[in-house]
Amino acid sequence: MKNLVPLAALVGLLAVSVPAHAQTARLGYVPTEDHPVGMASVFFAEKVKEKTDGRITIETFGNGVLGSEPQLQSSIQGGFLDVMVGPTSNLVGTVPEYLIFDLPFFYPDFEAVDAVMDGDVGKFLFERLDTEMGIVGLAYWDNGFRHITNAVRPINTIEDLSGLKIRVIPNPLFLSTFETLGTNPVPLPYPELYNALESGAVEAQETPVGLIHSSRFYEVQDHLALTGHVYTPFVLLASKRWFDGLSDEDRAAVLEAAQEAAVYQRDLSRSDADRLTGLLEEEGMQVTRLTEEEMAKLRERVAPVVERFSEEIGTDLVQQARAAMDAVAD
Predict the structure, then answer these.
(1) What are phi and psi for residue 250, nearest 5 degrees?
(2) Could you tell me the sign of the dihedral formed by the alpha carbons of 87, 92, 94, 98, in that order?
């Protein structure tokens, strides 16, 4: 009996080794685990655990195993899921101001994008997200500029888009944009896209090169046109029920970890885009870059769409975004 640890000492050891109020949260996302979203989700989870001294452990679930992005969003709203990453395009049904990230040919470069996301416009949108949906915006992540792939023909001119049956995000601005460009847009959840391309249910799609590569679209698509027509960010979101249930200290730690993860994810995503484009060419995709003359035709064609949806977003907010971009322009 002399070798037994006294009960009081054992309780003391347990108190030291097990953090007070320890909890496990779940984070869901749709891209693959080797996509920058997957890698940054793990980074975020590690930072949260470190900054909370182990009080919060976040388990990450990628590849859509917890559902499509709209399903994850519903789970976040209902408090059944704690954290998720998804594109802002799925938020526009309730917060139409998020359409500002779907305006075609609106953002000239990453500096302009960051000026809008990290400035007053991005903060205002997070406030709207809280009041209208009961969701907490933690940070904006990179999704890259979107490009068009298809299995029919190379895209060198605006006429080459005519009649293509293209999958788009189920979002009114995307539908209007691609209808105006002369395609036949088909709204479809992302997890269904590969099979739809493989079966021929759709002929084309438009996503950033990171998703094109990680989702292996080169297996079912022959042509990639680097149009950069839309910049749609990813956003790291938290359930209000979960986030508000944290202590002030832990909420601050989660927000700090989210910002650090945003820096990590944006750098990872953006620095990898050129390399991935090269890999897609190695996999057999024919990559085309439209001339500036043809790009001008695309911008001119969709200008009425930008004007119409700017009114729905709010012309003051659109002007605020333009001013933020002008402030960082060369």
Answers:
(1) -75, -35
(2) positive
- The torsion region of residue 68 among left (phi > 0), alpha (psi -120 to 50) and beta comes to beta
Contact present, 165 and 182 (Cβ < 8 Å)? no
Over the chain, what is the mean pLDDT?
92
CA end-to-end span of the chain: 78
- Cβ contact 325:108 at 8 Å: yes
* Beta strands, E only, the chain: 23-28, 56-61, 83-87, 135-141, 147-150, 165-168, 184-187, 204-207, 223-225, 234-239, 286-288
Name the DSSP letter for residue 97: G
Q: At residue 7, does pLDDT exceed 70?
A: no
CA–CA distance, 125 with 204 (Å, rounded to integer):
31
Instruction: Note the pLDDT tens digit of each residue in 90-123.
Output: 899 999 999 999 999 999 999 999 999 999 999 9
In sequence order, what are the beta bridge partners of 225?
A: 148, 288
Six-digit token pair at 292?
Answer: 């500036």
Question: Helix or strand or coil: residue 279?
Answer: helix
Maximal CA-CA distance, the chain: 88
All domains of the chain in start order, with CATH: 17-143+232-273 (3.40.190.170), 147-230+275-328 (3.40.190.170)
Residue-wise pLDDT for 154-182, tens only, equals: 999 999 999 999 999 888 999 999 999 99
224: nearest Cα among 237, 238, 208, 239: 208
The pTM score is 0.86
Report the C-alpha gap between 76 and 66 in whole angstroms.
Answer: 11
> Residue 21's pLDDT is what?
65
